[in-house]
Amino acid sequence: MPGNPVLDLNTRPYRALGTIVADARALTREWGLVEPAEATLYLTAAWIALRHAALLGPRAPDARCYRFVAFFCGMLALEEMDWLGLVSPLIGRVGAADVYLGSSHDLLKVAWHYHWFAIPLALSALLVLGMVWYRGHLTVGFVRREIFDPTTLPLYAALVAQTLDVDDTLLSTRHPFFRDPLEEPFELLAELLLVSGLLLKYCRDWRRAGRPQM
């Protein structure tokens, strides 16, 4: 009975709410606009780091560190695009856990399901970090200054969100509210925090430099 506030069975008033819920759930899926948005955020972070290096000047010790940050963020953008699909046809899914392996960050999921794999993975990460340190792309002074700086707080939060992204069942198994997959929302949140942290660092040094011309 249209118009009757009690017996009106028309679903039109509820379609907008259903559309909002469907759109919100779409953000939990690894398709559509989510993946391009995440890759774009990594590229944005790389651009901010490059602008920061240019602000400091080519001879500044920290400029080389920020250029490495830009390079690393660019690599993360390629990781987000699964290296343009070049790796997955060669490897695909591995193990009884059927873990998808399309890029190097998927190795974290392999280590999560097969704990023995965490040892060679950690050793490889330490080797790469040592090479980066040896080449001067990261310095003790840079790390010491930035690790306790207030502008680094969003980066710590991004690290926590990225950790939850590795296995979103940490929350979904504890409360029915988190029944939808949380991998993509956590990853999107981590990248927004990464961009925010790098932007705060750029604004900090921009103010210290006396606000030079952009």
Largest sheet: 2 strands, antiparallel
Quickly count the helices.
11
| Spatial sequence of strands, sheet with the most strands | 1-2
* Helix share, percent: 55-70%
- The termini sit apart by 64 Å
Mean pLDDT: 75
Q: What structural class should be given to the helix and strand makeup?
A: mainly alpha
Number of strands: 2
Strand portion = under 5%
Sum up the overall morphology in one term: globular
Order of helices and strands: HHHHHEEHHHHHH
Rg calculated over all Cα atoms: 22 Å
Low-confidence segments: 16-22
Key structural traits:
single chain, 214 residues, mainly alpha, two-stranded antiparallel sheet, 2 strands, 66% helix
Describe the structure in your own words.
The chain has a domain of 141 residues. It has 214 residues and is an all-alpha fold. α2 packs antiparallel against α3 and α2 packs parallel to α11. A hairpin with a 4-residue loop joins β1 and β2. It has eleven helices and two strands; from the N terminus they run αααααββαααααα. The chain has a two-stranded antiparallel sheet. About 3% of the residues have low confidence. It is globular and about 55 Å long.
